[in-house]
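Quick one, tokens below:
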């Protein structure tokens, strides 16, 4: 209850509800389900919320540095998310996307969509960008997966600040929540079992991406991403590569690269849910992983 009141007070000030709630898009099934890909021991279809970062007036990062072509983060995240959604459905999952077009969805509304649909997992797709102050920003490469907790490194804080910057595009009648307020929320959530579950999911995603990604694994990290604060379920944010690096920008912009990334993340989600159900046993096989706010 304490967490729910705090979230309502803090997040609500940052991004108040629009006059009309955002439409909750649902992707159509694009291929027949293959029973061999269904979660092990599942009694009911699991629901995965796939979140394409940025959108609309919020382009996210753009790159690459010194490249002969240009990519926008919002385009890459939507393309990868759409492929991920189709792949998850092929593996027997139900899927809801927070956006299916080039539109802006408030950070806090993305989590609310997940809660309203009673999602089991929340996966947010993003593209990383190098710090211009680094010695060789164009050379930065790799992929990393975050879960919600206080950042332990300056780089994790930098990435969270970069992805949280979308709030400047959102209509607000008041100031954004302070870092102290967000930190208090994170501290209050520290005992919640879904932090451990989110960490486990992040580890699996990194393991699967490591087998197909040309860049190095930058590991599982934690930071205060606002998009994860209002998602009451195991939730992660995946930085699929550095759009500022010409080689990685070409990879994440290619059909083959996007297909490999979406397959790897889908494999990790299915493996996580199967592991979760084995731990919980058949009695909990139909219970949603979402927690109550």
């Amino acid at each position: 209850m304490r967490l729910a009141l705090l979230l309502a007070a803090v997040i609500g000030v940052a991004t108040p509800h629009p006059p009309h709630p955002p439409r909750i898009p649902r992707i159509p099934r694009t291929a027949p389900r293959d029973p061999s890909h269904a979660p092990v021991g599942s009694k009911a279809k699991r629901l995965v919320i796939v979140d394409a970062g940025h959108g609309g007036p919020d382009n996210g990062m753009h790159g690459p540095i010194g490249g002969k072509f240009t990519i926008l983060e919002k385009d890459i995240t939507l393309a990868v998310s759409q492929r991920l959604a189709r792949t998850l459905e092929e593996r027997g999952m139900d899927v809801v996307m927070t956006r299916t077009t080039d539109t802006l969805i408030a950070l806090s509304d993305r989590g609310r969509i997940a809660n309203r649909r009673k999602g089991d997992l929340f996966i947010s797709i993003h593209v990383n960008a190098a710090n211009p102050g680094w010695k060789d920003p164009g050379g930065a490469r790799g992929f990393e997966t975050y879960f919600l907790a206080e950042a332990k490194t300056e780089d994790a804080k930098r990435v969270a600040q970069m992805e949280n910057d979308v709030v400047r595009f959102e209509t607000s009648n008041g100031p954004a929540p302070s870092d102290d307020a967000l930190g208090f929320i994170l501290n209050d959530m520290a005992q919640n079992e879904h932090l451990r579950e989110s960490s486990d999911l992040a580890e699996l995603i990194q393991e699967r991406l490591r087998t197909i990604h040309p860049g190095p694994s930058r590991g599982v990290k934690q930071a205060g991403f606002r998009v994860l604060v209002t998602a009451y379920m195991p939730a992660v944010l995946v930085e699929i590569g550095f759009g500022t690096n010409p080689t990685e920008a070409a990879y994440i912009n290619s059909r083959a690269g996007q297909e490999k990334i979406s397959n790897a993340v889908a494999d990790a989600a299915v493996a996580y849910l199967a592991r979760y159900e084995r731990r919980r046993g058949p009695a909990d096989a139909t219970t949603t992983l979402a927690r109550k706010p």
